[in-house]
Amino acid sequence: MGNAALRDLAAIETVPFADLEGSVVAVDAHNWLYRYLTTTVRFTPDEAYTTGDGTEVANLVGIVQGLPKFFEHGITPVFVFDGGPSELKTEEVERRREQREHYEEQLEEAREEGDDVRVATLESRTQRLTDVIQETSREVLRLLDVPVIEAPAEGEAQAAHVARHGSVDYVGTEDYDALLFGAPLTLRQLTSKGDPELMDLDATLDDHGITYEQLVDAAILIGTDFNDGISGVGPKTAISEIKEHGDLWSVLEARGDTIPDADLVRTLFLDPNVDEDVAFDDDITPDVDAAREYVVEEWGVHDDEVERGFERIRKSAVQTGLDRWT
DNA sequence: GAAGTACG
DNA sequence: CGTACTTCA
How far is CA A50 from CA A6, A161, A181, A265, A304, in A? Predict the structure, then answer.
């Protein structure tokens, strides 16, 4: 149950990479890593990123292949990692865990039947961010001098907070939730081939003639990652009823409906647990040799999967440094 | 999450 | 037309 319905409400336009030069993007680390992890696993032979004891660090391949995109476009990434899950998030996490186990059962069946295509599909679904992946990701980012922010809870909420309070220009995530956490400008498809999409909170509110709080209320009616919505209520109905009645409580009262924990979900978006003051150094000087040593020598990742990426980082980092002094 | 299809 | 459901990744 995603938030795809929010796309129908959001003001989105594509923006050329060239327009983003010189900007700082707070990247939702979980979301970004997950995307690169799944594509790496799908298109890279297991041996290239699996240690002798079977530990998989496809994230290291993904990071090395994914970072150049920022540097080559003159964008400074700041990776925002999740902290401990909120109480409500725990339920969602639990639900996803059950679904994952379901996939893993199917995976077993597919293996037994020798259905290779199905095995590959299911394997991509059962990927997750293990402790090793979290730790090694942080370490390679540290060696490459990419700033990291540790969120107390939701990474997206923290990213939205730093975007709202001026120290970064954009939030980078595929999740439409960023809008609900109050991110003023969100970049999507930073990991894809073409130009990114820009999702604009103020434009979204203007389009519908609603406030930020009313947008959150409408989303709760539709359903979010943290609550089931009202059946039969999609984006159109939600906006129209929120505008008619003013807020979530009035809509629920008028309909005679109820949403469990609605007040908690509302607070989670409107007043999330974030660090008010976070500092980071946006002057990135990667130690490519050290990062390569870590990835290839220490973790045994096959050189041919990462050498191009490291070379691109080396070149684009030099270029950025020159630009600064020009 | 995206896209296509079915349902009311 | 708006929402729900399905499939693929």
Answer: 38, 37, 37, 39, 14
Asked whether residue A176's C-beta has any atom of DNA/RNA strand B within 7 A, the reply is: yes
Between CA A62 and CA A325 the distance in angstroms is 31
With cut-offs at 50, 70 and 90, classify the pLDDT of residue A326.
very low
CATH superfamily of A209-270: 5' to 3' exonuclease, C-terminal subdomain (1.10.150.20)
Residues A190, A194: Cα–Cα separation, whole Å:
8
* Residue A201 pLDDT exceeds 80: yes
Burial category of A47 from C-beta neighbours within 10 Å (exposed 0-12, middle 13-18, buried 19 and up):
exposed
Q: Provide the pLDDT for residue A167.
A: 85
Q: Domain A5-204 sits in which CATH superfamily?
A: 5'-nuclease (3.40.50.1010)
- Which part of chain A is CATH 1.10.150.20? 209-270
- Convert the pLDDT of each residue in A202-249 to its tens digit: 999 999 999 999 999 999 999 998 888 999 999 999 999 999 999 999
Residues 262-321 of chain A with CB under 7 A from strand C are none
The whole-number Å distance from A73's CA to C2's C1' is 40
